[in-house]
Structures
1.
Amino acid sequence: MYIDKIAIKRYRSIDPVGIEIDCNKGLNIIIGENNSGKTAIIDALRIALSIGDYKRGIYVKPSDFHINLFGKQSKTINIDLYFSDLTIQEATAFFLLTDGTDTSKAELHLEYTLYLDKNGKQKVREEVKGGPNNNSVPRETLENISLLYLGAIRNAEIDLKPAKTSQVASILYSVTNDTDRKRIEDMLVETNHSIAKDCAIKRTEEIINRNLLNIEKEEMNEQIHISLVDPQFDSVATSLKVDYVSERYVKISKDDFNLILDELSLTENDITGCTITSPKHPNLIAVNLKQLYENSRFAGLYERLCSIAQNISHDISLNGLGYNNLLHMATSLGDLQENPSDEEIRVLLIEEPEAHLHPQLLELLFDFFRKANTDSKIQIFMTSHSPSLVAKADLDDIHIITSSKLGKKEITSIKDSSLDVNLKNDLKRYLDVTKSQMLFAKRVIFVEGISEALLLNSFAKLLKKPLDKHSIEVVSLGGVAFEPFAKLFIKEGEHSCLNIPWVVISDDDRCTNNEDKYKIKNETLVYSSLDVSGIVQHLSQGEISHRAKKLAAFSPTNVKLATKTLEYELAKIESNIPILLKVLQSHHPDIANDIRNRIKQTNDDGTANPSFETADKIAVRLWVAIRDCKGAFAQDLSREIVNGICEEGDNFKFEVPQYIKEAFNEILK
């Protein structure tokens, strides 16, 4: 049994149109920018799944009812859960949530109504219905839902402290039966008897009893008895605390170690690889506790060493936040895993599991979540801001929540997009940590490579449309594989798509098709033997590449193509040439000087310059000269533009190509 679909309306930032999430049976990762509604989804699930708890941790409040842009507050909230794959036992337990016929499916409907009581104070009325027929559902029906919630701010020191309701105590209750509990209670009775016989304990009792006698005289004559804790199983569960082992190795003298080995009928050969000796301390031996712990044969040796070693265990308050965060999740998941699984659905809700964890540890944790779902049949819903986690995840596990300018929420599940299996595999290969950031942005610009990415930031400043101000993420693909990315943003039939403004900036790579009679061959693009007039003619009459045509067909408004390349577009603008030549000077000084000579119509003596060339030919020369140093040239040009803006302000003369201006206008409209 698992949650197949979630529908939420008028809850917090979610408007009356509402959102629907088609859930995975296993892992569901909900991502989006801040304040997009991720926590609202998690809290709606908490509310619905904790209906059967008598000690609920969350309730619907008057402030949870949606308020629209005009300040009008909704009067109802609807939270609907749809379940699938019910077993016969689950269908029996949740019969009131079914339609009575197809018992493999179930529905839980919650409606909250806002009203005023007789004193004019806002109150909330709750109605719980089941199935498509809206059957009345008593709370007892929903007791078999097992829910664990881990919030974004977790305090392991508080949550794991000794208490009857702690996660450690809960695991102990789950893994023990009556025989186990009786055995533990007998051990506690024996321990109390031993402690009571200790002379220090007896002296303490005598002092307290003597003072009681002096106060009460013979009137009451009461006495106290000191023991460890009450010999009851609940007392043990309440007293359990979590420490951690800070050292992998335990140091012990060789003589003492050999005595222990003899008692346990072991030899040094048996534990080869588990010990280390040092020439500086020949009488000491270091024993690897972790290796002993992992081999059941050495369980007795492990226990003996732990009992005699000094300062092995420490309070978790000495840990860093990241380690305690892991400890908290491991303990909490242990509780959920060990709960009885008959007739119940088990759900883990976790916000921002990446908190305080470095990327490598996060990767291990993510693998653990996957295994928890596979082994223990736990359905997991998590929210995240981590590109590292997204890059690690299966694409079909990801649900992206976005907000329009008017506040409308939309959910895109990648599994429901128009991407086929091959395109998903392509996208997965490209979605590294850097590119995954696009899923958290308000706007996305896709470019071919590092040259465009470097310059785009400078162009944005020139246009007074800085990337950071408008939350624009520039994604450099390192190639022209735009299709799987574009497919995420394009609506096709009933398929879902990302509701994020986007644009592709690319080259049209004209004159590269094999069948094009105006094809420009790479071997002709050598500056020293350049047929400039011929290339100008080819560029004016040749066809754009097949790749560019296919890309433009995705969306004419969202795809902006340069004539040939970005560098050629820059060089076509005459006012840009002085700065382009200044940058080129450090890379190809001879070529830069040659182009300067060809720009001049007259010589210094006033005679006509025989080397003079028109602007279209100069643009070709600059494009060819830059081809072998594109990345370095872009970096230097970007620096030159930023310095020019800082030093000259509005007087700085450099023009952004028209197709890039159109791209910014499109994404910011």
2.
Amino acid sequence: MNQAKKIQITLWATLLGMVFCFAQKKQSEGDVLFFQYEYQAAVRAYEKQLMEGTLTKQQFLNLADAYFETDNFEKASEAYMEIYGQDTLMDPHHYNKMLQSLSKTPNVAEMEGFLADILSTFPKELKENMEFNHQLLQDGSEEHQLEYEIFNLDANSAQTDFAPSFYNNKLLFSSGREVNKKLRYEPGNEGYFNIYESEIQPSGQVMSLHVFDEVEDTDYHKATPYYSPALNSVFYVVSNTENGELAFDSNGKNALSIAKQTIGGSNQLLLKDLSTSFYYPFYDDTNGKLYFSADFEDGYGGTDIYYVYTNNGQIMSAPINLGPRINSSGNEIAPFIFEDNFYFASDVFYGLGGMDIYKSSIEGEDFGIPINLGDQINSAYDDFGLIIRNEGEGLLGYFASNRPGGKGKDDIYGFKVDEKPGLKTITFKGEVVNAQSSAPVPNVVVSLWDMDGNKVATTTSNEDGEYRLEIPYETDVVIEATKKRYSRYIEQLGVEELKALQNQSYDIGILLYDDLVEEREGQKVVKLNDFYFDTSSTQLTEEIKTELNKVVDFMKAFPEAQLRIETYTDSRGSSTSNFRLTQERSDAIKKYLVENGVPAINILYTIGYGEEKILNNCTNGVFCLESLHKQNQRSLIVVLNDNVLFD
């Protein structure tokens, strides 16, 4: 570390030590600017407080966020690291911002060390998502990438253009291009966002651009439209107002609400909270769910994606978080569903840049691992708001990006492609259960292997025995499930089995060793019902074969077990003939087991004990009931290595 860097970090630490001694409750100029999204001005105000020694811990965190929002990632990472080292104020969302900041500076080693420290605090799904996307983006996934024809729309302006949405054969979108020069949105130094409509041409370009006048008029933000054909309505966000003027909460924050405009009909405000903004509505015509983004306190990071149940667009439930498979420690926005695939944008730290677009398969009420769409749709900048539809023999789509080469701050890009964006994957999900009792088995290690013997994915079943694995597409896969004192499950699946597997549960049954053995006569034996040979016979009856089949199954489950077959008879008859008879019966049992798949090498001994070990008083010359004699007629399958089998 050079001397200048040392001095800078020392100065930060000294100032932070001072400022945290002067906590103030009164809202400062920096707070007002910060909550009004004027981040550059907030930086100046907070830095002044920092030098004066009047900055609270929360305000210093706000300053770090303001650095982040103004792309000053060097200062943002230093501030986040200072807070992380001295206080517990940071949450997973700020960890995500810190990781993003570090990734955009030369401090790669610092980022990797920090990630190793905090990864255990993240949900299991986030770690799986990260590892899966690292694998996709680093191990030659380019060969599976689609060929896109991507083009910048001629209708883009020098201001912000984003949030495209299909409206019959038109395209709606949001723009900060000025309409009323007296009303300006200061943080963006442009006009308040408005909704525009345009005609889609066969090329994908648009023309006949004008303000979309079907929604209720306001001087402030109208943005991110989504048109529902089923309801003939547009869902969009609008600034909170009272009596035609902006409405602010106690922190001076103006938030966004979600409205619904029936084309040619009424306008309704659906979701409103002065302190919480709602973003990017998407209405699913198939089930009446209204999806949106918001930053609620119960979220996983920053802005999460939620949905509410509706009745023809009327809210019928509290917001429901999509969960940690979709939502991360970052911000998730812009949900869109196309043919059982859920598209959205996220700035989670393991992406290619700022916001990246991801695709997740919809699996009933669950979602597959979100897959980064790769470096054609995504870039090192912000890419978000993807929509797509079938067009001729291919697909037509649009998204927004602030990548270099555009006309303004954010531009809308069109694209054409032959297939749905996103790599093809295979999903295994289901329950691991006890094959005898059907009870769920937790903590089972479930792994997938390719045909070269490489482990490609692994997970552990949860308390309910549930597991889930997703991997890039393979034509042949081996699945394995293991847990100590349980049987090993292993199965190879080819193309047809994998095809049938999609969108279906793949349940795994394993056997508990302790369910299959018992203690008898001071030794561990395979648990069987008592069975009897006919008098003086060595022939196996169907009843005997039924019991011996349990031994075959036991050995399939625990192929390392070593067996000794012991057979006994009662005291009737001569001891010599009884000895010979039981030996032949033990040999007959071994012959059957070997013929049915038990390796001969696993049967170390076959012994006939004759009448040597009588269990009761029915010895030679003693009268006994038949039932008492039968107690002495028995065969045992002893597990010789029971005490070391699971070492």
